[in-house]
Amino acid sequence: MPKFFTFLQSELMSRRIPNSLARSFRTLCLGLLSLLTPVSMLTAQDLKLGESLYQTCVACHGSEGYGNQLLNAPALAGLPASYVETQLNNFKNGIRGAHPDDQSGLQMRPMSMTLQDPQAIVDVAAYIAKFAPKEPADTLQGGDRKKGETAYALCIACHGPEAEGNELLKSPTLQYQSDWYMLAQLKKFKSGIRGTNPRDIGGMQMRPMSMTLVDEQAMKDVIAHIRHLSKLAIEEAKNK
Ligand code: HEC
Ligand code: HEC
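That is the input. Now the predicted structure with heme C docked in place:
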C-alpha cells in the first residue's frame, strides 16, 4: 500500500499537466495523498524500533502498558500516539517532571532522555498506541459518583461525555486510567507541580480545572464518576 502511494505521488509530480483545471486536481490529489501517506507509511520497521525502545519502559509500565501502582507508573495502553508524544517531549524538555516536589515525575524524566531524537519519540509512541487497553481495577474508596457527576459537567468540554478524550484539544482519554493515578495528577495540577510551566500548553489548560475541585473528597467524587462513565463506555464497545 505505501508503495502504491509513493508511486502515485511521483507520477503526479512528474507528469506535465496541460491545463489549470488538471493542475488544481493534481494539487488536490497531492494534498489528499500527503494526508494518507504518514499513516500508511508507518512501516513495520518503525514499530520494530519502537518496540526495542520500549524495552527501557517495561520495568515500570509493563510489557503491555498496563502500568504499576507500586511504582506510580500509569497505564499507557489506550493513550493516542499524539498525547504520548507530547508528554514525552514535555518530560524531555523539562516542561513536565522537573518540579522539585514532583517525585514520580522526576522518575519518569530521565527515562524520556533515553529517547535520543524526535523520531525515537514518534516510534515508541506509535508502538504504545498499538497496545490493547484494559479496564483498570478500582483502588479508591469513598467517592460519591452523584456529586462527581455535577463536577464532571465542566470536564466534558475537553474530556468528552464518556471520558473518551479529544485529540484536537489534546485532552487525553481517561477511560483506561487508574483511579489512583488520576487522583495523584489532580493533586499535582492543583498544587502547581504539573501544569505551571509556561511552555506547558496542555497542562496550563488543565490546571484551572483542577482548582474547581475543592479538596481530595471532591477529586475522589469526580474520579468515581469518570470510572462509572468509562465502565459504561467499555461495556458498550464490547457489545457492538
Ligand atoms: C522508573 C520507572 C519508569 C520507567 C522506566 C518509565 N516510566 Fe514513564 N512514567 C513513570 C512514572 C512514575 C510516571 C508518572 C509521572 C507523574 O506522576 O507525573 C510516568 C509517566 C509516563 C507518561 C505520561 C502518561 C500520562 O498519562 O500522562 C508517559 C507517556 C510515559 N511515562 C512513557 C514512558 C516511556 C515511553 C518510557 C520508556 C522510554 C517510560 N515511560 C519509562 C515511570 C517510568
Ligand atoms: C479546557 C480543557 C480541559 C478541561 C475542561 C478539563 N481538562 Fe483535564 N486535561 C486537559 C488537558 C489538555 C490535559 C493534558 C495535560 C498535559 O498535556 O499535560 C488534561 C489532563 C487531565 C488529567 C491527567 C491525565 C493523564 O493521563 O495524565 C486528568 C486526570 C484530568 N485532566 C482530569 C480532568 C477533570 C477531572 C476535569 C474536570 C474537573 C478536567 N480534566 C477538565 C484539558 C482539560
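Residues 95 and 199 are 6 Å apart (CA to CA).
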